[in-house]
Design brief:
About 30% of the residues lie in helices and about 30% in strands. The chain is α+β, with helices and mostly antiparallel strands and about 400 residues long. It has four domains: about 1-85, Rossmann fold; about 120-175, ATP-grasp fold, A domain (Dna Ligase, domain 1, 2-Layer Sandwich), CATH 3.30.1490; about 180-305, ATP-grasp fold, B domain (D-amino Acid Aminotransferase, Chain A, domain 1, 2-Layer Sandwich), CATH 3.30.470.20; about 320-400, Phosphoribosylglycinamide synthetase, C-terminal domain (Glycinamide Ribonucleotide Synthetase, Chain A, domain 4, Alpha-Beta Complex). The strands form five sheets. Strands 9, 10, 13, 14, 15, 16, 17, 20 and 21 form a nine-stranded antiparallel beta sheet that branches. Helix 2 (about 50-60) runs parallel beside helix 4 and helix 7 (about 125-135) packs antiparallel against helix 8 (about 160-170). The radius of gyration is 20 Å and the shape is globular. Pathway: Purine metabolism; IMP biosynthesis via de novo pathway; N(1)-(5-phospho-D-ribosyl)glycinamide from 5-phospho-alpha-D-ribose 1-diphosphate: step 2/2. Belongs to the GARS family. Keywords: ATP-binding, Ligase, Nucleotide-binding, Purine biosynthesis.
Length: about 400
């Protein structure tokens, strides 16, 4: 099969690594990709959300399957353009991708499907939003209604913090009650009303140790979460995913692709925080290093809507992904530092390093983004996986490298 992978982050490098292992693969292209993906595929200088250019390239290269990594191309209609061109795509339509593109849409679907979630209101007027948080009090959660790269959510611990978030994020907004519990990320392959469990992870969103500092796209993840076993994951699919799929079918916008349900494990059971319509980052890296199955035929079956025989099997290892970011992330990351030591890191047993914000300048690998690399490790125990990941992280050097010291503790 000839495959076009769309995206350029650590998630896409992990996907590319899995796809490259498939005996069914004959050619792998990545648009735009990154220097890590270049070791297993051919990079194409097309932006991930340039849908017309992606389709033109796919036709010219006789692509058999398009695998979208990030959410942006899906929200602007990549899967719809693929359907029109007759190219299988392992992702949802633009209408179904609104599950991630609009927080309010997700809430409406959840309410209609009877899915437990936080009480919420949507606002298009700043004064009305501020009046609402003053009435409800804190803690309270303020969310940008559209895409924000994982950085559009503020869990405000005070009214002034909530008001600042309202002014900074702008309209429209969703404001909701603050759920209490432990957060998990649940993943499944979906088509129509059918959902096949992939697995679960726990992301660490805050920039600093002890869950301090601003929200980010994610600073690390563990898989599987110790308090969310396979039985609990299947039950959560019944509560939070399968009712959504049925509601989307009822609305005439069936979902096909990878669903990522962000859940809070509360005293009353799992409650939905949000949906994402693709693998998470850095959760994908922690999940995919444990994958035993051939990913390519699963994604191909998903793209055809033939999930009946699709299943993913994973090792029993524990895994961890640790994001190495650039100083100044998430607001103003410093770029340009020369990166060394990736080979030393990958010499540690069980360690894989995935590129995200990197580029080659005069054949020298340099930092070129906020989240620069993801160091991943697997082992028989969470403690050993954590030890290996941090040993790998310390082997990698560049000016302005930062990372959390408590992922997986």
């Amino acid at each position: 099969m000839r495959v076009l992978l769309v995206g350029s982050g650590g998630r896409e490098h992990a996907l590319a690594t899995c796809l490259a292992r498939s005996p069914q693969l004959t050619a792998l292209y990545a648009a735009p990709g990154n220097p890590g993906i270049a070791s297993v595929g051919t990079l194409v200088d097309i932006k991930a959300d340039d849908v017309p250019a992606l389709i033109t390239f796919a036709k010219a290269k006789k692509i058999d399957l398009i695998v979208p990594g990030p959410e942006a191309p899906l929200v602007v209609g990549l899967a719809d353009a693929c359907a029109e061109a007759g190219i299988p795509c392992a992702g949802p339509s633009q209408a179904a991708a609104a599950l991630e593109g609009s927080k309010a849409f997700t809430k409406e679907v959840a309410d209609a499907a009877g899915i437990p979630t936080a009480r919420w209101e949507r606002f298009e007027d700043e004064d009305a939003a501020i009046a609402f948080v003053r009435l409800r009090g804190a803690p309270i959660v303020v969310k940008a209604d559209g895409l924000a790269g994982g950085k559009g959510v503020v869990v405000a611990q005070s009214i002034p913090e909530a008001e600042d978030a309202i002014r900074r994020l702008g309209m429209p907004l969703v404001i909701e009650e603050c759920l209490v519990g432990s957060e998990v990320s649940l993943f499944a392959f979906c088509s129509g009303e059918k959902a096949v469990l992939i697995g679960a992870a726990r992301d660490h969103k805050r920039l600093g140790d002890g869950d301090t500092g601003p929200n980010t796209g994610g600073m690390g993840a563990i898989s599987p979460p110790p308090d969310f076993d396979a039985d609990a994951q299947e039950k959560a699919l019944d509560i939070s995913v399968r009712p959504m799929l049925a509601e989307m079918v009822r609305r005439g916008t069936p979902f096909r692709g990878v669903i990522f349900a962000g859940l809070m494990l509360t005293d009353q059971g799992p409650k939905l925080i949000e949906y994402n319509v693709r693998f998470g980052d850095p959760e994908a890296q922690a999940l995919l290093i444990r994958l035993d199955s051939d990913l390519l035929p699963i994604l191909a079956a998903l793209a055809r809507g033939e999930l009946d025989n699709a299943s993913a099997t994973f090792t029993n290892d524990a895994s961890i992904s640790l994001v190495l970011a650039a100083k100044g992330y998430p607001d103003a990351p410093k770029a340009g530092g020369r990166i060394t030591g990736i080979d030393r890191a990958e010499a540690v047993p069980g360690v894989s390093v995935f590129h995200a914000g990197t580029k080659l300048t005069n054949n020298v690998l340099v930092a070129a983004g906020g989240r620069v690399l993801t160091v991943c490790a697997k082992a028989q125990t969470p403690e050993e996986a954590r030890h290996r990941a941090y040993e790998g992280a310390k082997a990698i050097q560049w000016e302005d490298k930062i990372f959390r010291n408590d992922i997986g503790k």
